[in-house]
Design goal:
- This protein is 21% helix and 18% strand.
- The protein is α/β, with parallel strands linked by helices.
- It has a single domain, classed as Rossmann fold (3-Layer(aba) Sandwich), CATH 3.40.50.
Length: 214
Amino acid sequence: MEGINGIETALLIIDVQNDFCKGGALEVRNGETVVAPLNALAEYCAARGGRVIATADWHPRGHVSFASARNAEASDIANSASGGALWPDHCVQGTKGAQFHESLNMNPVQLIIRKGFRQNLDSYSAFFENDRTTPTGLDGYLKALGVTTVLIGGLATDYCVLYSALDAARLGYRVTVLIDAVQAVNAPAGSEQAAFAAMRKAGVALAETKECIL
């Protein structure tokens, strides 16, 4: 793949928050391993005029995606406006679990997109809430800056990374997911490989971060 192309490139760092890392309420196995490659690429991207954006789940207490709010078991499927599975309480606004991982270098980050903050609507994608129509504002921001290429890493491969990549491709960006800077929930079993297959089908490229640093 091509390297960072100045202001036309944006790096999306997806949900590298404490609750998705080791010891978190919704721990993604080896989630913290995405930090080092993302730090390196963020510095490289910013130094060349690229854009660096971080997203974060930012849920109110009793959020519709929480199993505890439904008296249900986590992983039950919710047929509601939340548009997804039910999860343990995680990334609650103002808590340590919602904070970015302490080792994630935020200095190159120019914009933080908080999502999932509506009580009755979840959000996996960096671009849209789970109703698939309510925008987060990210597309308008990137288009206004002339961004045409999007690099994506973070957590988790089979949920927020997947939906962010698919939406970015659908919106007309050239998209690459960084395979050494993502980790999956892999629930249900096989969802990680299914996510990669869906990305490829949508025209999303898969590469390692070192391929972007030329």
